[in-house]
Amino acid sequence: MTAKLIKGTEIREQILEEITAEVAEIKAKYGKVPGLVTILVGSNPASISYVTLKIQTAHRVGFKEVQDNQPPDISEAALLALIDKYNKDDSINGILVQLPLPKHIDEKKVLNAIDPDKDVDGFHPVNVGRLMIGGSEVKYPPCTPAGIQELIVRAGVETKGAEVVVVGRSNIVGKPIANMMVQKGPGANATVTIVHTGTRDLASHCKRADILIVAAGVPDLVKPEWIKPGACVIDVGVNRVGEKISEKTGKKVAILKGDVDFDRAKEIAGYITPVPGGVGPMTITMLMKNTLKSLKFGLGIA
Ligand code: GUN
After folding, report:
1. Residue 119 Cα, ligand 1 centroid: separation in angstroms?
2. Among 121, 235, 259, 261, which one carries the catalytic annotation?
3. Residue 102, preceding bond cis, omega within 30 degrees?
4. Is residue 84 annotated as a catalytic residue, yes or no?
5. Cβ(99) to ligand 1 under 6 A?
6. Does the N-terminal peptide bond of residue 72 adopt cis geometry, omega within 30 degrees of 0?
7. What is the four-CA torsion angle of 167, 168, 171, 174, rounded to 10 degrees?
8. Which residue is closest in CA terms to ligand 1's atom 2?
9. What is the mean pLDDT of the chain?
């Protein structure tokens, strides 16, 4: 193994400790804590487990947490009215509607109804625009890309002038992380290429990358020979490739694989994120950071 492992699980602990300390400080000074509402429609098992983790993390860092569970047949109008209620609630700084939503509800309409100043997911078009403009315009960078940037910076990887290649052009990861890395400023200022299913020669682009960010959702897509020796490889893929019995709990758990052939890539890369335990733990962490930021904007101290 030559690569340094970038452990999201460890970096998450550092950041959550920083957030906890800041929340306590603000509470002592202003008598306020960040308020986060998570709206869950229906009972999709994956959504329940994500939301449960969000609630637990919010409690851990000292937030006010409101869990609002709604039945799967809630009407679109009723959901929009609920969002309006939280938009007007001064004790709520962040509103998160867990996705996906049932088919009878227009997801876009719902996300667009969230006050952009409480949109801690960073999915509202106003926040997408703010991210594109960059600098002090940015309020809430979307959580997974923000986590990726944090991992790169905290690992001590130089981004200024670096060749960054992003594999995948999703609205949630590929496009926003490319946008963030191209901005002028710390943790960015890179030369960015996005490659995707329409790219003619994926390998040749990846081979140039000083920082390779892979968010394609295809297990083992990136081969070790595509990696520049010493490069920083960020694997966003979480692909379920089977099931096994957990040694810890004795229960059936998913076998997860990233988009990069980790076992061979780690012999060539300079830095690499594992799956699981790399990018994954960062998403909820950055949600907490955005919610704290929202309270700070409200208090005029951000
Ligand atoms: N569903 C899966 N990931 C996410 C996320 O980051 N935010 C929301 N709102 N829903 C999700």
Report:
1. 12
2. 121
3. no
4. no
5. yes
6. no
7. 0
8. 99
9. 97
Long-range contacts of 152-158 (CB under 8 A, 24+ apart): 152/187, 152/211, 152/232, 152/234, 153/186, 153/187, 154/11, 154/14, 155/4, 155/6, 155/232, 155/271, 157/211, 157/232, 157/271
**Can you say whether the dihedral through the CA atoms of 68, 72, 77, 78 is positive or negative?**
negative
Q: In this structure, what DSSP letter does residue 183 have?
A: S
Ligand 1 contact via 97 beta carbon (within 6 Å): yes
Where do we find the tokens 């409200």? 298
CA distance 120 to 289: 9
Question: Which tens digits make up the pLDDT trace of 106-148?
Answer: 999 999 999 999 999 999 999 999 999 999 999 999 999 999 9
The β-bridge partners of 244 are 253
The pLDDT tens digits for 83-108 are 999 999 999 999 999 999 999 999 99
Length of the chain: 302
What is the pairing mode between strands 94-97 and 35-41?
parallel
pTM of the model: 0.97
Residue 109: active-site member:
no
Contacts of 201 (CB under 8 A, 6+ apart): none
Is the CB of residue 268 less than 8 Å from the CB of residue 254?
Answer: no
Cα 144 to ligand 1 centre (Å): 10
143 lines ligand 1 (CB under 6 A): yes
Using alpha carbons, list the distances in angstroms from residue 1 to 214, 238, 266. 20, 22, 6
263 catalytic per annotation? no
